Amino acid sequence: MTYKFQQLPQLVDKRGKLPSKGSYNKRANGVKSITTRVWHHSLTKLSAGGSNIVSFANFHVGTNGWPEIAYHLVIDPNTIINGKAAIYYCVDISKRSYHVGNSNTIGLGICVIGDYRTDKLSAAAIGSIIDLRNALIKDGIGKYDKSHNEMPGYSWKACCVYDYNKAFKDILETIVPPVSQNPSSPPDLYTIQEGDTFWSIAEKDGPAGITVNDLIAANPNVDPTKLKV
Ligand SMILES: [Zn+2]
User: Fold this and answer.
1) From ligand 1's centre to the CA of 7, what distance in Å?
2) With contact defined as beta carbons under 8 Å apart, do 158 and 117 qualify?
3) What residue ranges define each of the domains in the chain, with the CATH number in brackets?
4) What would the pLDDT profile of 140-198 be if each residue is shown by its tens digit?
5) How remote is the CA of residue 154 from the centroid of ligand 1, in Å?
6) Which among 36, 46, 51, 154 would be 20 to 30 A from 117, CA to CA?
């Protein structure tokens, strides 16, 4: 079956095309075993030469002795497709890949290339993080999102470092301060209308509104007996 996430325009299928030494085993209950989308970073700087999926696969297979690359999906901010970071589909999601130890059976491994102790998430990276997560939710793959270091036994690990919750909401929005919604603060400006007095203005908002004395104090240059429209 083809999932929605596989149809994302910036997704490139790399299954079976990366350095490997055999194959991971299937999850006990297939894709239904997945409860958690686990977010990683590669801990390699975006500007470093080895920050790519072939190098990661070589390291995981050659040095760690694993069958394939650790992650099911890798987001590469250095490669832009359709204005967003490339998403590489590396290991079939039905397989129990090695990325979170005891939680491998329930975890889907998603890695964003970069070392986010010093690198910053780009808009192109955030775009693909959001697209991938939304598609996985529609596909019913996983119920929760966790960073690697929120998984049991990994609190010591500096992974994923970037604030994935802010990325889901688009971090660019969160730097705009929210509009103050304090209902008890009176309006700053009132336009005098025909027939208004300070007393009638003060009465408009009832007991919760401004008092006549406060209105006089706030308008020292206005003569209450000579209001003009
Ligand atoms: Zn990790």
Assistant:
1) 26
2) yes
3) 4-174 (3.40.80.10), 181-229 (3.10.350)
4) 999 999 999 999 999 999 999 999 999 999 865 554 444 554 544 444 566 667 777 76
5) 9
6) 36
